[in-house]
Design a protein that fits this description.
The complex is a heterodimer of chains A (213) and B (268). Chain A is mainly α and 213 residues long. Helices cover 84% and strands 0% of the residues of chain A. The longest helix of chain A is centred in the first third of the chain and has 38 residues, at 33-70. Chain B folds into two domains: 1-30 and 244-268, no CATH class; 33-235, Rossmann fold. The radius of gyration of chain B is 21 Å and the shape is elongated. The chains are: A mainly alpha (213), B alpha/beta (268). Chains A and B meet through helix 3, helix 5, helix 6, helix 7 and helix 8 of A and helix 2, helix 4, helix 5, helix 6 and helix 9 of B.
Chain lengths: 213, 268
């Protein structure tokens, strides 16, 4: 009997119902002291779970790298790269835990290896964006022409030099951003929120696949 | 067009982009910047906060997008530390502590004392749940500051615990929707004004919130950083990079023009 309850999806649904109802009412209507305490408790649990998940994710990543490094099916280069990744993870972890993230070696590694690498990856987008603009931004039909005009106006607004040439670029570009973009963004936001509400209803009704189906 | 294709347009475009970025980097022109209303609103709000107000900073910087966020982040920190405000800062990204340490080298804290006038709390994972928890009780989330000092031993934290104790929450360098977390968890339930020093990808998404009054103001990536530097009168990486933005943006316009030339000619 107990096993059947634990295996079935009724128990998770009941737990979700109770938790959702209390948090929902407390958020929108300002609940009782007990409700507030429960909400605080569940939020603290969520923070703890996410932090534990982070540790679990790191361990799993490490475990997978070691497994692949030892795998006979991978190439030599692949095995070496996996072993190197695992070594780096362990090395940085030991460094961070023992010396602290403010320590010289850790800071040096972060500022001279990680930061420039990330920033390089981010910065080279400029080249891909240029070729993408050249290839994709074409006024092949009316709709594409409207998109092109909007894009060009915002592009010109974002270039400070255009303000020196004609102040209108800034005004029109800002109008596209503040009015046209806003209406589209609002529609997306409202759509996403309705989607989230429908997902919540599906979970509460036990129709969502995540509940062990 | 076909000649361009034969040579290999990618190579030409890459070379042009390289030149458009390199020349203004080496020879700064220093073009004036038009300050947007959003940046001005954020500046005015911080400038008009009464002395001794408690301000929360949710520092959300990631290394990857930091080039876009850096100018506004630095200018914002300079402005916030220039004013006599009590600052409580915590991190919502693992990169935050390292990036903040780098930025604080450019911030003149003057006679402000750590622990009395400002406090740095550590990084805690948990996304929006953490933002929600901080609004209810900072002590519930943080037991000690970034340097390991217990919260109870920090004089500034004696009368600070929940969202209502703050006059504003400023979200810095966010790329993952942290501003929306602050709006949902701090502004809507606790009515704490939200300001944002954000990157250009997030900026258009925040405009509806700004129009609705949920966000007091925000900056727009490097350009917003340059605007904020103009407002606080401290030249920094933003104003240096706007020349590059101008040349590269004009190059993009030129490339789009070349790509569309054939289509327009055919239609005419």
């Amino acid at each position: 009997m107990m096993a059947a309850i634990l295996k079935g999806k009724q128990l998770p649904i009941v737990i979700i119902w109770i938790a959702a109802l209390i948090i929902f009412c407390n958020y929108f209507f300002g609940g009782s002291a007990l409700g507030s305490a429960f909400r605080t408790l569940t939020v603290d649990w969520a923070v703890l779970i996410v932090n534990m998940a982070l540790i679990l994710g790191s361990v799993t990543l490490l475990q997978r790298s070691i497994t692949l490094a030892r795998s006979k099916n991978s190439t030599k280069v692949d095995r070496f790269m996996r072993a190197w990744t695992a070594f780096l993870v362990i090395f940085v972890l030991i460094l961070g835990v023992t010396l602290g993230i403010q320590s010289g070696p850790y800071s040096w590694m972060y500022n001279n290896i990680l930061l420039p690498s990330w920033q390089t990856v981010y910065s080279i987008i400029i080249f891909f964006m240029a070729t993408a603009a050249y290839r994709a931004y074409k006024a092949n039909n009316r709709y594409a022409a409207v998109l092109l005009a909007g894009g060009l106006l915002v592009l010109l607004r974002n270039a400070p030099v255009t303000a020196v040439v004609w102040g209108g670029f800034q005004t029109i570009g800002s109008w596209v951003l503040d009015v046209v973009n806003m209406s589209g963004t609002r529609a997306i936001m409202i759509g996403a929120t309705i989607g989230a509400i429908s997902l919540l209803v599906k979970i509460l009704l036990g129709r969502e696949r995540i509940l062990g189906e | 067009m076909s000649t361009l294709r034969n040579i290999g347009y990618r190579k030409i475009i890459y070379l042009l982009v390289l030149l458009a970025a390199a020349i203004p980097t080496l020879y700064t022109i220093g073009l004036p910047v038009t300050v947007s209303q959003q940046s001005r609103d954020l500046y005015s709000f911080i400038e008009n906060l009464p002395a001794g107000s408690n301000v929360a900073i949710q520092f959300a910087a990631y290394a990857g997008m930091y080039p876009d966020a850096q100018p506004a982040t630095r200018a914002g920190l300079i402005h916030l530390f220039r004013r006599p405000l009590n600052i409580v800062l915590w991190h919502t990204s693992a990169d935050g502590p390292m990036l903040l340490t780098g930025e604080m080298r450019y911030v003149n804290v003057g006679s402000r004392v750590y622990g009395k006038d400002y406090v740095f709390l550590p990084y805690v994972a948990g996304s929006e749940a953490t933002t929600s928890a901080t609004a209810t009780s900072l002590r519930g989330v943080f037991k000690s500051d970034f340097y390991g000092t217990p919260i109870d031993q920090i004089s500034l934290m004696k009368n600070i615990d929940k969202a209502e104790d703050f006059k504003a929450i400023i979200v810095m360098a966010a790329a993952g929707g942290e501003e929306e977390w602050a709006i949902r968890q701090w502004y809507i339930p606790h009515h704490v004004p939200v300001g944002a020093f954000t990157i250009s990808i997030t900026y258009p998404m925040l405009i509806p919130y700004w129009k609705a009054g949920s966000v007091i103001g925000m900056t727009n990536g490097v350009l917003g950083g340059a605007e904020y530097e103009t407002l606080i009168g401290a030249r920094g990486p933003g104003l240096r990079r706007t020349d590059v933005m101008s040349t590269v943006s004009l190059l993009y316009v030129g490339l789009i023009g070349v790509a569309n030339f054939e289509i327009i000619r055919r239609k005419i």
